[in-house]
Automatic annotation (TrEMBL):
Pfam families for this protein: Aldedh
Active site feature: 290
Family per record: Belongs to the aldehyde dehydrogenase family.
Residue span, Aldehyde dehydrogenase domain: 53-518
PANTHER family noted in UniProt: DELTA-1-PYRROLINE-5-CARBOXYLATE DEHYDROGENASE 1, ISOFORM A-RELATED (PTHR42862), DELTA-1-PYRROLINE-5-CARBOXYLATE DEHYDROGENASE 2, ISOFORM A-RELATED (PTHR42862:SF1)
Protein name per its UniProtKB record: L-glutamate gamma-semialdehyde dehydrogenase
Amino acid sequence: MTAESTFKLTYATMFNPPEELHTRFEDALARVKAKLGQEHGMIIDGKEVFAAKKFEDRNPANTDMVLGIFQQGTAEDAQAALAAARRAFPAWSRMPWQDRVALIRKAADLIDQRIYEIAAVVSLEVGKNRMEALGDVAETADLFRYACDRMEANNGFVVEMGRDPLVGFEARNVSVLRPYGVWLVISPFNFPCALTGGPAAAALVTGNTVVMKPASDTPWSVRLIAECLRDAGLPDGVINYVTGPGSTLGQALIDSPEVDGITFTGSYDVGMHIYRSFAQGRWPRPTILEMGGKNPAIVSRHANLEDAAAGIVRSAFGLQGQKCSACSRIYIEAPVYDQLVNRLVELTNKLSIGDPTERKNFLGPVINRKSYADYQAFCEELSQAGTILTGGKVLTEGEYAKGYFCAPTLVADLPLNHRLWKYEMFLPISTIAKVESLEEAMRLANDVDYGLTAGFYGSEEEAQWFFEHIEAGVVYANRPQGATTGAWPGFQPFGGWKGSGSTGKNAGGVHYLQLYMHEQSRTLIRRL
């Protein structure tokens, strides 16, 4: 994680960290808390830019706590950022790719050096527990490095092609992948570092310039990633950071003809709106969308039930279920249904809920008032149609009084035709069904518009059958570290099928970088 650390943190290894991690996180948290309430500008063309209107960034665990003051950017700010990126593009795109790689690697090193401070901000701002917050930041640095690795492995994506058999001439043909231009990155609240930094690094290392717009719930975390890029020495205008409402600033960015490509991570509805809006331009432009999931775990009668229970609970309730990869549907073969359900309830009831910066807590708050209200509405609907096994209520007493705390919730006996089997709630709620066969489970698992992640527990032979039949981009078998969550760059490329993604290529994988470039075929003829 840093030059001084003695261990490597990933989502799969965060469950038994050394004491050093906790000591350093708590020291960083104290430093961050000493700086709360400060105003932060936008970064446009290397300069701090302030808007006439501001908004407060508050802690969802304690809404009395103002984390910082941020700018409510306007359509004019959007155009200024795009113009700066356009001016910076010629020099940045023509820089030797090795020099761009060196700068992105330097930014990754800065993330490592600042990882505890950034993670403390993520924990306060998002509501992630300290391990998930550190994982988000560590993943960002690894996404930076993986983008650089892929650029190097492909030698800058310059490939000598075949030579035409022309008598009296020598023909040289070369395939070159070149950047598009100005790239827009719109990121969600739940992984503000990785889902901003990963696409930004891919765009930058391939020669594009970038405008990044974070979710309004998480402007500070993204600002800190932008600072690492700025402080690494990227030229002015190569990276720009703007904040403000999606309905005004965000839409102005999406509608601008100055945007040559876009990466968006968020809900299906917003993603499809962007997809259709972006199609109104003068010509087709690359649109990379990751739009959520309704992710199943299938448990065979031959499964290791302890592994299944651990993996399902971690994936269902990590970050309060606010992950596009969260395990929100559980299909269990009848012979092991009762035993596994009892264990799931038992493990869920042991989860500690509270201030996510405290070491003891696994769950923090949901992100905002709307999610808090949605949770209550969904639980009421589910209680009318099914059986709430545990949870189903908000927590309002004592330490919970000033935050958006929701109990992790498991629901059984929900009719399989109920709408919430197919609707992404994005909350700590999972539904459970008993099935008579794996074939029935697979049919139900695939019968949704999404196809992001999926998990399986059973024999190795059954796992191979699962891999062949499941309609999802990221699939795991027999994984106690997480049934449907925990992808890491260079290990599990992350992206979805169907309504979960638009490209068929996964972030943190071997085919992702190419999405940020278009191909030019070059032929040079020389007379002999």
